[in-house]
Structures are given as structure tokens and as C-alpha cells.
């Protein structure tokens, strides 16, 4: 199965760094947050990635183009213009970076990469949030109910819009948060059947609006409740929080071994 990562937005809320690079390329522990998300999926054996790029998409392409160089010990012989590689490490990843347009909305970006996914189920998540969600259990749960889309949901205190979840975990709707709300929110880490593409019209479609709302109306959107860690990186303060966790050696999302 392929993992589709949304990485094309402007990241205006963390403009201190996003004026130089896409938000998913902002670093935690000297590695882009995008890398951290990919390491999670790779830990569970999913190593094929499709990255929906847009804003400053060349930065993402250059990172992967130079990955081998940056993770190797190398001797450069300038007289012969040659290079000798000593110790090296490369991830077992196959990465497709797709320029999905500068101003394309989230749904439109997903629609544009359909040919790279084909008629198979795929993972879909945002390129700016880390979690310790068990990807294997998420996929197992998705297969168990037979619906078009499974969305990971968690409760982190109410800064975002919330989900209406029925007793059978079917998502029946979306609404704005209230001051005393304790409801769960969409944190990405979705599993999608190819039928989901039919719910997206084009470049101007926001994934979180009509596509997900209509999936919910059709009874095709199911919540996978995650009680563990999740944190997005929308602001400099959130980046600092994640940096401190990583530096302490206690980053909850680091489920892989070195």
C-alpha cells in the first residue's frame, strides 16, 4: 500500500520558517517533520510514498535527491573529480514527489495523484503532525468494517472543529467546537479506498469539506479512536515543544529503532 502525504500548503501560521521552505520540511532534531511521519509508516513496513507537493516543492525534491549523500561518509578526490563512498545508510523508501499546484486545495491535491495510487487502498495523512498511532492496527480496523474511509480521531482539547461519532464509530457529521467541548477531532492518518476519489471534484475542493462530509452522509466514514500521542506543528511554539521532546529522548512518536 502507498502512503499519500499532503505537503503542499503555505504554512502561514509558522511563517518564521515557512517563508524559506514548505512546512513539512521544517525540522525537528535536524530532520524534516515529513521524515518523522515517513519513519512511522516505514516502521510498520509501508515504504512507498506519494508526496503531494506545491509551495516550494523543489525543497522536498532536493532533500530526497541528496538523501544518500547526506547519510554517507564520503571522500571527494578533487583532482580526479571522483567520489568514494564509505559507510552509508539509506531508507528502504520509494518516494514519488508530485507538484500538485501552488494554490490547489487539499482535496484537489489528492485527486491529482490518483494515477500514482491506482485502484488500490491507500493511506492518507497530513505532512505536519506526528503521532504514535499503531498503523498496523489502523489498517486492520479499516479492513474489518468495509467502508470507504477510516479517519484517526483523538481528543486533545478543543482548538479544532469536532466530529460527531455514533456508537458504532460511524462519523455522522462535523461541527465547530464549543467552549466546554470534549469531542474528538480529525488528526489524519486515514485509510482510503479508491472510491474516495469520486467524492473529490477538482483543484478547488477542500478535502475536509464536501468530500469528507459526503462520505459521512453516505455512512462511508468511520473513526479509528486513538488514545495515544498526536501533535501538529502549526506554530513556532508547537515546533519548540516537539524539539524539546526529541532532544530529551522521550519523543512519543519515535516508535522505530535506530
TrEMBL record:
Domain (Nucleotidyl transferase): residue spans on this chain: 2-204
The answer to keyword Nucleotidyltransferase applying to this record is: yes
Gene3D superfamilies in the cross-refs: Spore Coat Polysaccharide Biosynthesis Protein SpsA, Chain A (3.90.550.10)
Q: What class of enzyme is it?
A: transferase
Tell me which UniProt keywords the record has, alphabetically: Nucleotidyltransferase, Transferase
Name any Gene Ontology BP term. O antigen biosynthetic process
Pfam families listed in its UniProt record: NTP_transferase
Q: Does the keyword Nucleotidyltransferase apply?
A: yes
Q: Which GO terms describe its molecular function?
A: glucose-1-phosphate cytidylyltransferase activity
**Which EC number(s) are documented for this chain?**
2.7.7.33
Q: Which PANTHER family match?
A: GLUCOSE-1-PHOSPHATE CYTIDYLYLTRANSFERASE, GLUCOSE-1-PHOSPHATE CYTIDYLYLTRANSFERASE-RELATED
Protein name according to UniProt: Glucose-1-phosphate cytidylyltransferase
**What species is this protein from?**
Ruthenibacterium lactatiformans
This protein's encoding gene: rfbF
Amino acid at each position: 500500500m502507498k502512503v499519500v502525504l499532503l505537503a503542499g500548503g503555505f504554512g502561514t501560521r509558522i511563517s518564521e520558517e515557512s517563508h524559506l521552505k514548505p512546512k513539512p520540511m521544517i525540522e525537528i532534531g535536524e530532520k524534516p517533520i515529513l521524515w518523522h511521519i515517513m519513519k512511522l509508516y516505514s516502521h510498520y513496513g509501508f515504504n512507498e510514498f506519494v508526496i503531494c507537493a506545491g509551495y516550494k516543492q523543489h525543497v522536498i525534491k532536493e532533500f530526497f535527491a541528496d538523501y544518500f549523500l547526506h547519510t554517507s561518509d564520503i571522500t571527494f578526490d578533487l583532482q580526479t573529480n571522483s567520489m568514494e563512498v564509505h559507510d552509508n545508510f539509506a531508507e528502504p523508501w520509494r518516494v514519488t514527489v508530485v507538484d500538485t499546484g501552488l494554490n490547489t486545495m487539499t482535496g484537489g491535491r489528492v485527486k491529482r495523484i490518483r494515477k500514482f495510487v491506482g485502484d488500490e487502498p491507500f493511506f492518507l495523512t497530513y505532512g505536519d503532525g506526528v503521532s504514535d498511532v499503531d498503523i498496523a492496527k489502523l489498517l486492520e480496523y479499516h479492513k474489518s468494517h468495509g467502508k470507504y474511509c477510516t479517519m484517526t480521531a483523538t481528543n486533545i482539547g478543543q482548538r479544532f472543529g469536532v466530529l460527531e461519532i455514533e456508537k458504532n464509530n460511524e462519523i455522522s457529521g462535523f461541527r465547530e467546537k464549543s467552549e466546554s467541548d470534549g469531542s474528538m477531532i480529525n488528526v489524519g492518518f486515514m485509510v482510503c479506498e479508491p472510491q474516495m476519489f469520486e467524492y473529490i471534484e477538482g483543484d478547488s475542493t477542500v478535502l475536509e469539506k464536501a468530500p469528507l462530509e459526503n462520505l459521512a452522509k453516505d455512512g462511508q466514514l468511520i473513526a479509528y479512536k486513538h488514545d495515544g500521542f498526536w501533535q501538529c506543528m502549526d506554530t513556532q511554539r508547537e515546533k519548540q515543544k516537539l524539539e524539546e521532546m526529541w532532544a530529551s529522548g522521550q519523543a512519543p512518536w519515535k516508535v522505530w529503532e535506530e
